[in-house]
Amino acid sequence: MSINVNGAPVALPQDPRMSLLDLLREQEHLSGTKKGCNQGACGACTILVNGERILSCLALAVQYDGQEITTIEGLGSADDLHPIQRAFVQHDGFQCGYCTPGQICSAVGMIAELQRGVPSHVTDDLGDQAIAFSQEEVRERMSGNLCRCGAYNGIIDAITESVAEVAQ
């Protein structure tokens, strides 16, 4: 049993109670994914599984056998930043930076949701397959990712700027 983390195979733990977050941080030493509340309330541990965002603190690693996992380390590198990473830097979408990896992974997943036509609580027309991008949609969809520093305006600006580039 194994998962694919950022393009590399990773053996699943012997202990079926280990969370995906603990596997990434403790076994794989991928410290970008943060343990904030460890209760699914803050979003600091957000990663992508097959392109969809999940809270890794609430996921048992063994549930994801054979799945593609992407962490912040798998989105870009220092020499080749992901468009959302670049936009976060340009728009000061972080202060202390603790929530930033989860915010960025969540933003990537959120943009994919918009492209697939997944509605949110603020989507006007649930029958419309093409959901209009708006700051209201972004704020609603990112509401599960908390920033104690209050860098929300920079985060929203970064996502707004990069959505067209990421959606290509």
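Above is the first protein from milestone M3; the second protein from the same milestone is given next.
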Amino acid sequence: MRLANLAGRAVLLQDGRALDVERASDGRFGPDPMTPWADWAAFTEWAAGVDYANAEGYDESDLGAPIPFPRQVFAIGLNYKDHADEAEMAYPENIVVFTKYQSSLAGPTAEVKVPGETLDWEAELVVVVGEQIHDVDEDAAQAAIAGYSVGQDFSERTVQRRPPAPQFSLGKSFPAFGPFGPAVVTPNEIEDPANLSITCVIEGPTGLAQSNGAGAWTAQDGNTKDMIFSSARILSDLSKVVTLYPGDIVFTGTPAGVGMPQGIALQPGDVVTTTIEGLGALRNPMV
């Protein structure tokens, strides 16, 4: 199942078409994209037998954040060995956690206003929680995963690093700094979430400059198998402190290739395409 938000309505995507949830369920589930998370188990049971005959074509520009108003948004830092290496930092023994504020969430084609001269990119796997959990082990955490999505953790590094103490959450929460989608993809649709290619390609002025005029520059080319903490470990560790709720989302960290260590930043005219194998892609213009 691929659950998405099309022009503010919950839909299921299949083969380039969208099925409206409210209409297909005869009103059992409402049109609000948050409705499925009120009873995820019942929703998935219904969706498993749904008929896509009435699905229709759609415009990708109408896709919004699949979960526009999660209760909680978590993000994990330094979760890929090669990214820790490029940051010249030791591999963490415990998860490094911050948040991206809810207002930073956006859809897969959202425009991003460049707020300064140090705008960076971070391609990330997003994990979505499907049931309420607290203080659970990794097996229970794995069972609580509703699905996965593609995320981009845009970061304004000057704000993030300004004194007297780092402002991670503020530097990463300008409008549209947390695009994700195009859908929440359930685990049964993915062969191995722990072995997915993840890339970030930049076109425009930055892409031209870094590709010697070729036009598109692959800034990041990684794989989720290189994560230090697995998705289940992350949810389990989070649950030792907080209660996780259905629809909560977790940005799980980024592989090597971000701009800051290279002295490279995004600028207006750039287009950032973030792709994860089997999950889809985001394509976000910088304005």
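Note on the second protein: The first helix runs from residue 21 to 24.
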